[in-house]
Amino acid sequence: MWPVFADPKTDFVFKRIFGTEQARMAGLTPAEWAGYDRAKVAEQDARGAISLAERQGEVRALRRSIEVVCRLLAIPLDPSRRAEIGAMSHEQLEAFLARLERERRWD
């Protein structure tokens, strides 16, 4: 008796174990595989762009929070201080905001 191989496109067990996407990919031609790979790369690029936009939005929000805290504490924000805030990274802004709230002064 010869071994029986399941067709990955139609076999229920194969789909259940490996998922429908793997079952679909099993029969791809090299050109289809290249297209699939490009689509996955584009999908990852889109996720990266969203992540970057979120991070930039968080930085803007932190800078704005520092401005509000300074206004509430009557700390003047001259152009040099604004430039200092503008040059800070996300982590630096978080640490500076925490220190500003804790010490209630710029220096």
Number of helices: 4
Query: Tell me, what's the shape?
Result: rod-shaped
According to DSSP, the number of beta strands is 0
Largest sheet: none
Give the count of structural domains: 1
Could you tell me the mean pLDDT? 84
Rg over CA atoms? 27 Å
Order of helices and strands: HHHH
Residues in helix, %: over 70%
Oligomeric organization of the protein chains = single chain
Low-confidence segments, given as residue ranges, are: none
Look at the helices and sheets and give the structural class: mainly alpha
Question: What topology emerges from the helices and strands here?
Answer:
Blueprint: H1 12-25, H2 30-72, H3 79-86, H4 90-103
Helix pairs in contact: 2-4
Could you explain the architecture of this structure?
The protein has 107 residues and is mainly α. The chain has one domain (12-103). Helices cover 74% and strands 0% of the residues. Helix 2 (30-72) packs parallel to helix 4. The longest helix is centred in the middle third of the chain and has 43 residues, at 30-72.
Short structural description:
The chain is mostly helical. The chain has helices at 12-25, 30-72, 79-86, 90-103.
Quick tags:
107 residues, mainly alpha, 4 helices, 74% helix
